[in-house]
Design brief:
single chain; about 260 residues; about 0% strand; mainly alpha
């Protein structure tokens, strides 16, 4: 595969974004794998999840050391997300039993739609600002628990299906359900994303056997130091310009995937 020396650099860039914003892993890596490297969509999903698992582990470890993880929210999200992601992988398994070309085309479209959703949610957060992150919530504990589990289930299903959503979708919805400071919101999202993408990656490995371990390893060379550096910088770097630029990139990439 030509240009393999660029993969660690790309992993570094994506890792920095994951550490800085809690987003950016699947939404940036999937277009690279599908459009840049020409991988079938089904194989790209599994490879991205395997790469993301260790990247998120590095980020979660750094956030845990910084005290920016709410373990109870992580637990509640995982209660919904892990079973849901297994259901999504089972759906992919049955879809693959039919025409593999048709399932790849369908999955390409689903990934493009998820990129649009992720970009829209990013812009929504920028417009709303961080008011929801610092406003106290008046919901009862039971009501809040149900909302967090539901958010986890939705995100888990999307991640198992497309590898996108562990950061971009879940963090945007989490803003509406819990009261957390921005740095704690990102740390909690990254910690939960590690559990979610690891479960999804293992399911893809054992049931679909669609992971390119060599490619994932090359990406990890850059992404692990990138996510640690990004996690340390997140309290100093303004994220709003970053989110606007990232949203624009996602929208243009989605257009390329929908209109070859």
């Amino acid at each position: 595969m030509g240009g393999e020396w660029l993969l660690p650099l790309y992993g570094l860039a994506v890792g920095l974004l994951v550490g800085l914003t809690g987003m950016g892993g699947g939404v940036l890596m999937m277009p690279l794998l599908v459009l840049g490297l020409g991988m079938p969509a089904t194989a790209a999903v599994g490879t991205d999840l395997a790469y993301s698992s260790l990247t998120k582990l590095a980020g979660a470890w750094q956030h845990w050391r910084q005290g920016t993880v709410d373990s109870s929210v992580v637990r509640d999200l995982a209660i919904g997300s892990v079973p849901a992601t297994l259901v999504a992988v089972a759906l992919l398994y049955f879809l693959r039993d039919g025409s593999e070309l048709a399932s790849d085309r369908w999955l390409n479209s689903a990934i493009a739609v998820m990129l649009v959703v992720a970009a829209s949610l990013m812009l929504f957060r920028v417009i709303r600002g961080h008011r929801d992150e610092v406003t106290s919530m008046r919901a009862t504990h039971r009501h809040q628990f149900a909302k967090i589990v539901a958010i986890g289930a939705l995100g888990g299903f999307l991640v198992g299906l497309t590898s996108i959503g562990s950061g971009s979708v879940i963090i945007a919805l989490l803003v509406l359900a819990v009261s957390l400071r921005p740095e704690r919101l990102v740390g909690t999202d990254v910690a939960h994303a590690f559990l979610l993408v690891t479960a999804a990656a293992l399911a893809h490995i054992f049931f679909l056997n669609d992971v390119d371990f060599r490619l994932a390893s090359l990406l990890l060379i850059g992404s692990i130091p990138g996510v640690i550096i990004g996690s340390r910088l997140m309290v100093r770097v303004p994220r709003r310009p970053l989110q606007i630029g990232l949203a624009g990139l996602l929208l243009s990439t989605a257009a390329k995937m929908l209109v070859p």
